[in-house]
Amino acid sequence: MKKTIFTLVMTSLFTLTNVNAQEANSNDDTAYNKWQARFRIIAVSPSPDDDIDGADVDISTTFVPEVDFTYFFNKHLAAELILATTKHDVEIENGADLGNVWLLPPTLNFQYHFYVNDFKPYVGAGLNYTIFYGEDAGDLEDIDYDSSIGFSLQTGVDYSLNDKWFLNLDVKKLFLKTDVTINNDSSNKAEVEINPLIIGFGVGLKF
User: Fold this and answer.
1) Strand partners, 153
2) Alpha-carbon gap, residue 128 to 196, rounded angstroms
3) Strand, coil or helix: 113
4) How far apart are CA 36 and CA 164, in angstroms?
5) For the chain, which ranges sit under pLDDT 70?
6) Among candidate residues 103, 88, 207, the one with its CA nearest the CA of residue 146
7) What percent of the chain has pLDDT above 70?
8) Hey, which bits of the chain come out as E strands?
9) What is the per-residue pLDDT across 45-92, written as a single tens digit (0 to 9) for each?
10) CB within 8 A of 172, min separation 6: which ones?
11) What was the pLDDT predicted at 23?
12) CA triplet 184, 103, 193: central angle to 5 degrees?
């Protein structure tokens, strides 16, 4: 699995580098900003699933700030690094309180941008690495979440206010899961899918 992910990332980087070189050597001198940053408020809504017999895990929706940085290889192709951290309450539906946990899922997406007057729609896909920390075990003695690698899909649109500032609406779907160990007992390990939908609105700056 890790070898496949590494191959996909390297292939994407090689492709983007070649496209960037071709753009630089072409006669297209259309100006564009190589960097942009956004500040968003995002809603993170998990869609949990698990392999626990007779029980369903429920994970709360949360609202948090998020920042991201985007580098443009050319006018259309870009890479975006997304940074945010979220805290979620976890429980067994109609059952035990599993406390709460913080998630830190830095995500790198490769994007293609379109241009329609002041609107700039885009689509993207990439990888995230989710780190779990600050666990509170709730009704249990102890609970532990394994960090994991997942995939990301993205779509959104920027709306230019002027040459520097723009508004942004963004939707992402992260495909991530974790192995959860209860009370330090490896026999009490369950696989839980989180798969959050992330909807954000914010403002951006080109530079």
Assistant:
1) 125, 173
2) 12
3) strand
4) 9
5) 1-30
6) 103
7) 85
8) 35-45, 49-50, 57-59, 62-72, 77-83, 86-92, 97-104, 107-113, 119-136, 143-145, 148-160, 165-175, 177-182, 185-193, 197-206
9) 999 998 777 778 899 999 999 999 999 999 999 999 999 999 999 998
10) 82, 107, 109, 152, 153, 154, 197, 198, 200
11) 43
12) 70
Mean pLDDT of the chain: 87
Pairing of strands 62-72, 77-83: antiparallel
Encoding tokens for residue 36?
Answer: 């942009």
Distance CA 16, CA 131 (A): 28
Structure tokens at 109: 């997406």
How would you classify the pairing of strands 97-104 and 86-92? antiparallel
Please, which residues bridge with residue 195 across strands?
Answer: none
Give pLDDT, residue 59. Answer: 95
Token pair 């991201």 is found at 68
* Domain 32-206 class in CATH: mainly beta
Q: Where are the domains of the chain?
A: 32-206
- Sign of CA pseudo-dihedral 153, 129, 193, 101: negative
